Structure formats: C-alpha cells, structure tokens
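Work Package 3 (structural annotation) set out to generate three-dimensional models for the target panel prioritized at the project kickoff. During this period the team completed the workflow that converts sequence records into discrete structure tokens, so that structures can be stored uniformly alongside our sequence database. As a representative example, we reproduce one entry of 158 residues exactly as it appears in the project archive.
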Amino acid sequence: MTENYIQIMAESLEKKLEVLDRIIEVNKRQLECSTAYPFDVEVYDKIVDEKSALIDEIDRLDEGFTSTYELVREEVQTEPEKYRDSVLKLQELVRQAVEKGVSVEAQEKRNKAAMEAALSMKRQEIRKSRISTDAAMKYYNAVSKINNVDPQLMDKKK
C-alpha cells in the first residue's frame, strides 16, 4: 500500500514539473508583453490570470503531496531500505522541482523589473501629456485675453 502512495507522490511531483515548465513559458510571454511598446494591459492581465491558475495548481499538488507523505512517512522512516529506490526517485524529482522553482523566481525578478520600467515609461508619457495640455490651455487663455477688449475702454455713448 505504501508503494502505491509513493507512486502517487512521484506522479504529483512529475505534474508539478510540468506545471513549472508551463509557468516558465508564461513568464517568458509576460516579459515580452511588459517590454512591448505600446503596453497592452488586457494581454498582460490575461497572462497574469493564466499564471495565477498555474500557481493554484501547484499549491493543490503540494498539498496533495504533503498529505500523502504524512500517510507514509512513519513506515518509510522505520524501513528505509525497503523504499530506498522509491525515495531516491522522489528526491531527484524534488531536486528538479527546486531547480525549476529557482528559475521561476529569477524570471519573476526580471519580470518585475521590466514591469517597473514599463510603468515608469507610462508615467513619463502621462507627465508629458499633462504638460502639453497645460501649455495648450495657457496658450488658449492667453490668446483669448488678447481678443478681449476690457469693458472700461468701450465707448458707452450712442
């Protein structure tokens, strides 16, 4: 029975590796989107939603792995030689998952920096737009005052 649980744990880790691979691909698309000009908020939101669903899937897999491990932990610890090969396989899968997790973390840092740069550029555009609008309003006000004749200069006699 324990061997079946260990097999379930291995399958869970393999699924986690697949999901991590998909997250790596989504992170690449997210980086491309955040460095694209003009920045498309809708596309970026879809990518973030997709990644969020993948992260939720990883959380479910981790919870399943942990609960399954709790069922077999005592027996595996009392008879380590009996499950040696299976445990070694699990350890290798965990190592691969950790490596991919580190890679995802590095991608996340790059994505954050790219997004901050995109936001900074957007702020500069807004600032320039505001300055242009203010200049246009000041020009309009100045021109409209030139064409106005003050009432005190008007001849009131008729």
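The mean pLDDT is 87.
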